[in-house]
Amino acid sequence: MSGPGGGVFVSLEGIDGSGKSTQARRLAEALTTRNIPCLLTREPGGSRGAEEIRRLVLEGDPDRWSAETEILLFTAARRDHLEKTIRPALARGEVVITDRFADSTRIFQGITRGDLAGTVDALHDLMIGVEPDLTLLIDIDPALGLHRATARAGAEMRFEDMGLAFQTRARQGFLDLAAHHARFWIIDGARGADLVAADVLQAVLHHLGPRAADV
Asked: Which of 149, 154, 192, 207 is deepest in the core (most CB within 10 A)?
């Protein structure tokens, strides 16, 4: 989804504890250092309305919502995020870096808790209709990811509390998705943060091509 102003849309995906949030932040810092205009955002969230929905879906008991209800909530948040934050930044010619986008819904609601992939895709086509230009999948062993995630325990732990089997299914789902879409770039997230950050930046600069060289 390159913007009319020359913007580029980059998403970071992965299971909980993969380090994608840290890498999204570091990528934004690296691009800013290179004078490449960018915007760092997240899902669910990234706009006022979407941040309000974030609290509903990430906090509380794991069984608080059914997968079907979550699909509706996440899609509503994503639509507001797209309208209020992503499209305006792309129109300004910025690199939009989002910590999660529609692929997370495809995995966490679409396949890990039932066969709802068709529902997710149909609603996405109807209400969102765009994909990132580049998706960086930070891949990590589910046991290590869950250990990292629970070590930073906070209020937003609904999906971590679903356990190792859930995270294992999610990881395989992401890998399967990556195998079928050319926009994915898989990065080993089990290494030190500096090594991961170097690979993330390399992938984005490669995608930007001459634009990165001109700044």
From this structure: 149
